[in-house]
Each structure stands twice: as C-alpha cells, then as structure tokens.
Amino acid sequence: MQTLMIILVMVTGILPLLQPGVAQAEAAPLAVDTARIDKFVEMMREKLDIPGVAVGIVQGDQTVYTKGYGISGPDGQPVTAQTPFILGSVSKSFTALAIMQLVEQGKIDLDAPVQHYLPDFELADKEASKTILVRHLLNQNSGLSTLHGRTAFTNTMPTIDALIHNLKDTPLTEAVGSKFQYSNFNYDILGGIIQAVSGKSYAKYIQDHVYSPLDMQNSFTSTPEAKLQGLATGYKSVFGFMVPFEQPDNQSMLASAYLISTAEDMNHYLIAQINGGRFHDVSVATAESVAKMHQPAIKDPTTDGSEYGMGWEIVNGIVQHAGDVESFHSDMKLDGDVGVVVLINAHDYLVRGYKLSMVADGILDIIHGREPIEDAGSVVGTHIIIDLACAAVAIMLGVSVFNLFKRKKSFRFTPLRTSVFAFCLLLFNIVLPITVLYGPSHIFAPWRVVVSFLPGVGHLVFVLSILSLGIGAAKLIVLVHNLRLHRMKGSGKTIAS
C-alpha cells in the first residue's frame, strides 16, 4: 500500500511536466555587458550632442540595469535613474492601460460610441461623430488627422475638457474606422472618457491607478510639481546649437504627451507590461488586457511593416513606442521578456530627430549580442549646410532691399528683360514665400507649433518669407510704375532695376 502511494505521488507530480505546453523553462538570466552599453551611450551622446540620457533595462520581473548619463540641465546636475523626464507620446500607453482597467470594471465598452461617455463630444461632421467608437480612438483610426492632432501643442487650452469642447469645428480627413492616422486628439479624447467614467481628473486617476500601485515614486502629472523634484531641463536645437528651454505645462495634452517619469520608475512599468499586468505582487491589469494593447490592430502606411495596437506600436515583433515633445525624446521597447527604456532631455526635429532612437535600438542590439549601428552621420556638418543656406537667402533678400532704396540704374527696356523680371518676381517673391508660409501650416502644424519645435530656423524662415513678400510687393509697384512711364513716353527705353 505504501509502495502504491509513493508511486501515485510520483506519477501525479511528473504528469504535469509531461503535458505539452504546461511546463515552461525559465529564461536564462540576462548577461548585460554594462561596460559596452555605457561606452555606446556616451559615444552616441557625444555624436548627437545631447545633454543627458537615462537608461533602464528589465528582464522578466526584474530590473537588470538603470543609469544616467550627462547632465540634466544648465546647472550641471548629473542625470540619474531618478531624474524625471517628460515622456512625450509614451504617455499614450498609460492612457490605453487606464482605459483597459475601466473596461475590466465594466465601466467602458470598447465598441461603444464615444458620445455614450461624452454626450457633448462633436466634430465638424456631426453624423460621423456619432459613429466613432472607443476602439477607434485607441487604434488611431477615428478619422482625425495627424495635422489636427498637432494643433494642441499651441497650449491654448487649459484642460482636457476644454480641448475636447474646442473640437467642434475639427474635420475628419478619413472615413471613421477606415485608415490609420496617428493623432494626439484620439488619446486626448480618451483622457476625457477616463475622467467622465471614473469621476476623477485624468491626473488623479493615473496617480492612483498606475503610478502608486507600480511604486512609481518619482513620476508626475504636472511640470511645476516635477520641477520641485528635479525635472530635467529640455534642450532644443537653435541653428545646430543645443539651448535649454523652459518647458510649458500642457495639461490639455496630458493623456497624449505630457506625463513625466524616470528610468527607474519606467522599469516598473515595463515589468508590468511584460508580466501580464503584474509588478511583483500587484496587478494593474489582466494578462488579457495587456495582450490586447500589444496586439496589432491596424497597419501604419507611413512606415514599413509597422502596425498599431492600443497605445503601442508593433514593429518586426517588437512592441514599442517613442515619445517626442518640444525638447524631450523617449523610447520604450519590449522584445520578448526584455524591456528597454531610454529618456533624453533634448530634441532637434530638423537633423537629430529620427537619430535619437538609435540609442534604444543600439542598446537592444548589444543585449542580444549584435553590433549596434553607430553611424549617426554628421550632425554638425548638416547643420552648417542648413545655416549657410539660411544665410545665403537672408543675404539675397538683404541685397534686394538695398536695391530698392539705392539710386536707380537704367537699362534697356525690352520685352525679354521685362518678362524675366516679372517671372523672377512671381517665382521668388510671391509663389515661393506663399508656399513656404502655407505649406507647413497645412501639412505639418500651425506656425506657432513649427517655431516652438524648430526655434531659430523656424523663426528665420517665417520672417524671411514675410520679408520676401514685402519686397515682391515693392518690386511689383516699381514694375507697374515704370511700365506706365514707358507707355506715356512712347519712345521711353528704361526701367528701374
């Protein structure tokens, strides 16, 4: 009998191990070559001329590495793992998590219309507004455009509710649910839904239901509060030189771009994302909810092979999201059971922009034993070319102004010269400046946003375009005046240059 009992215990203990799909081998501990990572990050920081970087690496449910590099601001304070940075669009994943928490509680239905939770929500197309679902906002296919989503960076709305109320004249550029268009407005509206359903402000909800349970002690929902705890100073490129700027507090875009955290705290967040919503003994979401957020839902036609889930982008099997605001950049990547976060207190949308993500990509390559891409091109050389081009245009316009006021020169008044003069006037003093002034505001963002994200060059281009139009108007007056004189004199053969 005893022998049978022993055999029975042995068999029942072994059977689960023999069943397919039940036993899972634990991932081998990550052997991180920290010296190599340090060398790579410092090298990229020097090549890209960025003031500070914070890095976090996790595997499974453990923090593997955190470190700060460089300085957090003009005072020379070193970046640490506890230095707060503005996250940019990484904030969208927090908003998606909050929505899924409320879905689990039965307070939100992903396939319910937005107006079910925000009865006053309305866009320019009133009928289409009724058909926008919560899921459309999460998947970025509501029909709201990227361009319109950038207008909120003007920071003219004091709250999320005010921003949503101000959308009444905003058009849809695609049919609802038909096409991916990355728009901040989608997640700003989700922030409003969170407030309406939970009865809390978005900031309070994130603090209570994400930051606190994940022990994110140095994460914030307002810039003034974060400044008291050492918020890094953001830097922008002005004609190629990194200059510190005071970052405004944009509460209206908190749900899409302006949450604040540290490398250390983001490690906790990534651990929860890797482990089905669990961080140690705390759960902020079910594994099913996390899987839905990470699941590809719609293709991004602007990139090669990229798809969007809910607050996360999926590229070649890596679940990730980047974040950008005026003077900060961030990246977070989930590759299997490995997570990487990189926070940078600088941005340069003209030259360094897309190169900043090379830091996170390189760290992931090193972790997997691959050679990181280190060739970032010549940042200085590119900016010199841009600056010289700007200087050349400014000099040419200066010469044009000088010529308007100097003593008139006479030259033979011929149909060919008149035609060339008129053509150059039309092209360089009317068509070109109008195209420059109209283009960015109707393709990228309003000029107020452009000059905020591209200080120096943005301001100069705007001023030179206005000046060119003014010179064109003056030249046109001179041309018309001389044509009249020519006709009056009958035999007159001169025109002022």
TrEMBL record:
Residues 40-346 form the Beta-lactamase-related domain. InterPro entries: AmpC-like, Beta-lactam-related, Beta-lactam/transpept-like. Keywords: Membrane, Transmembrane, Transmembrane helix. Coiled coil: none annotated. It holds the Pfam family Beta-lactamase. The keyword DNA damage does not apply. The chain crosses the membrane at residues 384-405, 417-439, 459-480. SUPFAM superfamilies: beta-lactamase/transpeptidase-like (SSF56601). It comes from the Bacteria. This is Beta-lactamase-related domain-containing protein. It comes from Paenibacillus borealis.
